[in-house]
Amino acid sequence: MISPLLRKRCWPVWIILATDMRVVMRGGGDLATGVICRLHRAGFSILVLELPQPRALRRSVSAAQAVFVGSHEVEGVMFEKVTVPSIEMLPENTVPVMVDPNGVSLTHFRPHVLVDARMKKRNVDCDCGMAEFVVGLGPGFRVGENCHAVVETQRGHTLGRVYWNGGDAALPDTGVATVVSGYGDERVLRSPCVGVLESKFDIGDWLPEGQPAASVNGRDIAAPFAGLLRGLMHSGLTVSANEKVGDIDPREVRQNCFTISDKALAIGGGVLEAIFVWMRQRGFVVQ
Predict the structure, then answer these.
(1) Which candidate, 47, 45, 79, places its Cα nearest to that of 61?
(2) Measured between alpha carbons, how far is 100 from 103 in angstroms, rounded to an integer?
(3) What is the C-alpha R_g of the chain?
(4) Can you give the pTM of this predicted structure?
(5) Domains located in the chain, CATH noted
(6) Which of 68, 76, 132, 230 would you call most buried, defined as having the most Cβ atoms within 10 angstroms of its Cβ?
(7) Which residues of 140-153 are buried (b: 16+ CB within 10 A; e: fewer)?
C-alpha cells in the first residue's frame, strides 16, 4: 500500500533518462554499497557522502574505502574520491565518493532521491525535505517523520521489505550478531580499550584460534576461533573501548570477504523498488 504522502494528485507523465535521476547515498558501508551497486547498474547517477574517517568494517566491499585510498573497486564498480559534488567528468562505471558528513553538498547536487544508509539506528538527523524522495534504511526511521519510505534491514522474513504507511518503522535494533555456522556474538572483534587500531592481518586472511588480528595501544585483539578475517576497520583509526572493530567468519569461503552480501543485495532490491514506485507515482517513465 502506498502512503498518502505520495498520492497527492495525478501527475503528468515525464520521460526521463535513468542517468538524469540524481541519487545521493549518505553512507558508504557494505550495506550501502550493495544498494549503490544495484542502483548504479540500473542506470542511476549516484553521489556517495561519507565521514572524513569512515568506520566501515567490511572495507573490501565498501565505497567508503575510497576515502582512504582514493579509488576502490567493488564487483566491477569503481568508487573514486572527489572534492566537488559532480559526476559529469568521471569515467563510465565510476561512482563519486565525497567527504561531506553534514550533507552540505545537497544544495549544489539537488538530488531527486536521498537514501540514508548510515545505519545510525538512533538520533537520526534526516528529514523529508532533504530531497523529493527520502528513503531510510533500518532502525531509527519512521515514514512521514524523517523519510518517505523505510526499507527493512534486519535479517528474517521482512528483510528488504519497503514500508510506506505513515508511522511505519523498521524493526528495532537487536544488538545481537547474526549466527553463522553456530557462532554469534563471538564473531565480533571488539576494542579492549580507547586508542589507535593497528591491523596485523589483511581482510581475507585465515587466522587460527587465538591469533591476534589487530591491536589497540599494544593490546591484542585475538581471533576467538579459527576463521577468515571478514572485516576490520582501517588501521590508524581511533576507537572506543568495546567498540566493534571487525569480525571473523568461520566459513572457509574466502570469496565471501570480497563480494557483496545477500543481505546488502536484498536491501538494495528494496531501495530500487521504492524508487521505481515513487517514480511511477510521479508519472516518470524511465527510458
Answers:
(1) 79
(2) 6
(3) 19
(4) 0.90
(5) 13-171+262-286 (3.40.50), 185-250 (2.40.50.100)
(6) 230
(7) bbbbbebbbbbbbb
